[in-house]
Amino acid sequence: MSVSCGLECVLCLGCSRWAWKRLTYVGAYDSEAWPPAAAEDVEPIPRACRAVLAVYEEDLANPRYAPAGGYRMDPSDVVKRVPYDQIPDGCCPPYLIYVDRQHKEVILAVRGLNLIRESDYKVLLDNRLGQQMFDGGFVHHGLLQAATWLLNHEGDTLRDLLSKLGPEYKLVFAGHSLGSGIAALMTIIVVNHRNQFGGIPRNQIRCYAIAPARCMSLNLAVKYADVINSVILQDDFLPRTPTPLEHIFGSIFCLPCFLFLVCLRDTFIPEKKKLRDPRRLYAPGRMYHIVERKFCRCGRYPPVVRTAIPIEGRFEHIVLSCSATSDHGIIWIEHEAQKALDLLKDTEPKTPPPQQKMDRKQSFEQEHKAALEKAVSLNIPHAVAVTEESSEATITAPSECQQGATSGGGSKSSGRANWDQLVEKLFSKNESGNLVLKKDINIDS
Length: 445
Prior knowledge:
Layout: H1 2-23, H2 39-42, H3 44-53, E1 78-82, E2 95-100, E3 105-110, H4 118-124, E4 132-134, E5 137-139, H5 141-165, E6 170-176, H6 178-192, E7 205-210, H7 218-223, E8 228-233, H8 244-268, H9 271-276, E9 286-291, E10 304-308, H10 324-328, H11 330-347, H12 357-377, H13 386-392, H14 398-406, H15 419-424, E11 428-429, E12 435-436
């Protein structure tokens, strides 16, 4: 009797401790050791949010959902807007292409998940653990198919715009939630096939994944951290494909059971086991975390933006928060990002900073190399060494770009690229038909 009572006490204490740690964990803990971001690094984030918000508008000249301060976009510079009725079922969410002449950017923005559209769920749920190998890692199968479809339809438009506007223009992909995963995977494809865009340098390609979906394995998330930026607001629950058990219980018992299963899975899987699983999907690239609330304190505080390229603890904790839904909303993310940017500009010193702009860029490059080295030292599966990454980042010569453009999978006369064939260069199949990793690929050869 006494033994059973003792076991019950131990069980109660253990459950109470788990519940206390789970209920008191806030999103601010994930980035508390990260350094603050500079104003010039935060400046493109609210602009990217507004570009994604513009996808929801039928007419930018007469907006219905304009954020505070307006969209700050010229409606005449919207090159193309593609709604649901112009997209085949289950291929991709709506998107737009916009030329930002003030900041010299060509932007392709993809909207997030529409809760009442079955076609968006087809893209999100088209994935199994370890189904899609790609570029030496794993990615979300449905999002990769959507990214390939989008490039097949708009790759020529983007290429023509870049050649017409000049080499000083950047190519920017932006997306929210479901669209963020599509934008991130499009960025990887374009970075590996820059010859299809006139040899655009790698440092002129950018992606802003707002409230990002978990869409790529850890080695890819770190490898492309110099071009992909993920933006997370406080306690946002990063979307991912549920496991079959979570999906069944979530469908039967709704959200509480789903969150309970996710929290149990998050608690009892050791960090080392997560890192050793090459199939596990993560949020992509460099992380920008907007923090505005503190534990046991009411109200919102002036937002602070922290940034890093984390390896361990990469937003793997599930935060139980009543604000998780609003923190995932694109409107609120834009509002807080703009507010954080205004605060950073107000607090900037009027005298020249001790660390100049070029020094900050070099520090970002050094941080990226350090993250790559740490991934290798932690034995992350298929992690890329610094030497391989630096050789891949070199700018392709114009003559090589022209040769690649004619032999890139389209006809030589039209120069049109078949992105399905180009994507196949990043993975291969063995004799039995199973996907296998393709190492040491030279895309431009």
